[in-house]
Write a structure and sequence with these properties.
Number of helices: 7
CATH class: Alpha Beta
Number of domains: 1
CATH topology: Glutaredoxin
Largest sheet: 4 strands, mixed
Helix content: 40-55%
CATH superfamily: Glutaredoxin
Shape: elongated
């Protein structure tokens, strides 16, 4: 099974996820959500899998800099907001087979290892 890690190249958490996945010996691909990902296709799939509460990063600088109107749009149309502002996506988003994980933790790595067995 191949793991696809969607994130930003300059994101510390994304770099840690890549490093940990490599150390675990898992086959992976890194996709930059700003430059390489087809967010119009990916974002709706991720929203179906994990929901907007997990996917919209309300702690990000992007969120804090949004107007109340933009935040309201992000709540009513999360797909549109995430597609137009990929830095609003909580990172990393990891696809492993049919599973989608958002964020990085030891439990995420454990789940990836189990799925790879």
């Amino acid at each position: 099974m191949r793991v696809t890690i969607y994130g930003l190249k300059n994101c510390d958490t994304c770099r840690k996820a890549v490093k940990d996945v490599e150390a675990a010996g898992l086959s992976h691909q890194f996709v930059d959500i700003r430059a390489e990902a087809d967010n119009a296709v990916q974002v709706p799939k991720w929203l179906d899998a994990v929901g907007s509460k997990a996917l919209v990063n309300t702690r990000s600088t992007t969120w804090r800099n949004m107007s109340d109107e933009e935040r309201s749009m992000a709540e009513t149309d999360p797909a549109g907001a995430l597609i137009s502002s990929p830095t609003l996506i909580k990172r990393p988003v990891i696809e492993a087979g049919q599973d989608v994980h958002v964020g990085w933790s030891a439990s995420t790595l454990d789940a990836l290892k189990i799925a790879a067995e």
